[in-house]
């Protein structure tokens, strides 16, 4: 199994490899000790720890062991944090300028005719996004759209974008019934400004690998870079339990050429 987005594919494999190594050590140790330290039937075992039934045993600690199983997992956690840092930082790059006036990975808002937002404007009108070998995407600028969650459906708003950049529709899907469709253009990057009308939801665009909570009374943002190699049609599901019809609170993402 693999995740369906490039940026986390290498990370996924990396985490799986470490999980396997840690599992082999932990379960190997467990099985070895379970079967090695077994007394034979009828044989009297010397009571080296002076164990008495009903009495907590004499403490038999080993400082080297305790330091080892505290220190090694700590080093592993620091390492996994280190390798996760760049992909996570890319997923959460800022739509605003830093203290030196430089934008994040996706520049500022495109000069695309859409003005109904508070983000700083760029001179470019198209994102022309590109992906490096690690899956990190950069863009010249981004388009702002809106996503609203409500029990139990999603609403997409293309703001004032032209229909070749963003379009919406409805479609009937097996199991899910009538679902909204969001059509975005390949090579363009979108910033979804999101809110909920009622409880917490979370859109999860499966092939973009992103997921972010939408909250009542508070706007959250999520990047949606539609890279050239993304699957033409993919699903979005709600990833935060929100009540009876949570499991069918779906939508469809279409990547337009
Ligand atoms: Cu939900």
Structural class: alpha+beta
- Inertia-based shape: elongated
Q: State the CATH architecture of the largest domain.
A: Sandwich
Q: What is the ordering of alpha helices and beta strands?
A: HHEEEEEEEEEEEEE
Physical arrangement of strands within the biggest beta sheet? 6-7-13-12-9-10
- The figure for the number of domains is 2
Radius of gyration: 26 Å
- Mean pLDDT across the residues is 91
Helix content: 10-25%
Weakly predicted, low-confidence segments: none
Bound molecules: copper (II) ion
Number of helices: 2
The CA-CA distance between the termini, in Å, is 28 Å
Describe this structure in words.
This protein has a six-stranded mixed β-sheet with strand order 6-7-13-12-9-10, with no helix packed on it. It contains two helices and 13 strands. Helix 1 (6-36) runs antiparallel to helix 2. The chain folds into two domains: 6-38 and 45-91, Helix Hairpins, CATH 1.10.287; 108-256, Sandwich (Immunoglobulin-like). With 257 residues, the protein is an alpha+beta fold. Strand 4 (141-150) and strand 5 form a beta hairpin. It has helices spanning 6-36, 63-91, and strands spanning 108-109, 130-131, 137-138, 141-150, 153-157, 166-173, 177-185, 189-196, 203-205, 210-211, 220-225, 233-238, 250-256. Copper (II) ion binds at residues 201, 238, 240-242, 246, 249.
